[in-house]
Amino acid sequence: MRKLGILVLVVLALAVRGFWLGRFPGGVSHDDLVYVMSSKMLYLRGVDVSGVGFPQLLFGSNTEGVISPVPALLLVPYYGPMRLSLDLARWPFVILNLLTAVGVYVLVRIMKATKGWAMAAATAFA
User: Fold this and answer.
1) What's the pLDDT at 23?
2) β-bridge partners, 124
3) CA 40 to CA 75: how far, in whole Å?
């Protein structure tokens, strides 16, 4: 019953977040926008927003934020064939945040079961 409650809570939070995804917050952060636009540019022209092509992109980019090329490369299949919108731009980050929350939950459950949680909490918050 407890797992069902947590599942309902996660699904409800995801539904509420998905409903307001295109309206709140009003914009996209600079780093997120660079990842989205670099992915789209890589799909369309083979270069990121700074003009660096694929093989050289693995070693660095000339963007203002000096972003890592890995997220942009991983998101090319998602952003490439679709029209860009705020909803579409934010879904990967929502899913990543959800997976992070689930991962932390599982990690805490494992630490609590092995009684290592007290030591982990003491080192984390010291």
Assistant:
1) 67
2) none
3) 9
